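ok so for the tutorial part 2 we go from a plain amino acid sequence to predicted structure tokens. step 1 is just haveing the sequence, like this:
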Amino acid sequence: MPEMWEITGEYVVIKALENGVTIIGLTRGKDTRFHHSEKLDKGEIMIAQFTEHTSAIKIRGKVELLTKHGPIRTDD
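step 2 — the prediction. this is what the tokens look like for a chain of 76 residues:
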């Protein structure tokens, strides 16, 4: 498999509990910048991965987040 296709980070599963959830990927490096955003509606699921380019994921809205550390749910 070519090097560019190797898995470089862990995955998280994000399930929207309401319409209009915003997910924003933030870059690594000297300056943290937004590099990608998505909108999810209630019931939609996104699988995200931390990579050599993504150091953080910002989530706005009510979600259930599944990680290797266990489930996390935003406060009601």
